[in-house]
Amino acid sequence: MFDVGAWASKLLNNLPFVLFLGFLGTLYIANAHLAERNVREIQLLQKEIKEMRWYYMSLVADNMYNAKRSEVGRRVREEGLRPSSEAPKRVIVEEE
Q: Of all helices (H) and strands (E), which one includes residue 20?
């Protein structure tokens, strides 16, 4: 009915193929884990980029606000200076 010797003989004859299939299965599992790790890292980096973009936009907005003439004038007055009311003078150097 069930011949153990024939079954063992077939197993030994096909052992390289069975080991090859086991190796391929191991590679498949390792590749899946590596892909999942890469996806998590990409998502983390995308979140960090988003936060950095928000930080950059807030810095740009603060810089634009602080560069306005009225804001610069207010800060200069706090230091005891005043904005010039006359136009800048031009210096002309004649070459000899």
A: helix 15-66
Q: How crowded is the C-beta side of 80, counted as CA atoms within 13 Å?
A: 0
* 11 φ/ψ sector (left φ>0, alpha ψ -120 to 50, else beta): alpha
Least confident of 17-21, 57-61, 80-84: 80-84
Question: Is residue 46 predicted with pLDDT exceeding 70?
Answer: yes
- Quickly tell me which residue has 């790790």 as its tokens: 37
Q: Phi and psi (nearest 5°) for 68?
A: -65, 145
DSSP character string of 54-75: HHHHHHHHHHHHHTSHHHHHHH
* Domain edges within the chain: 4-78
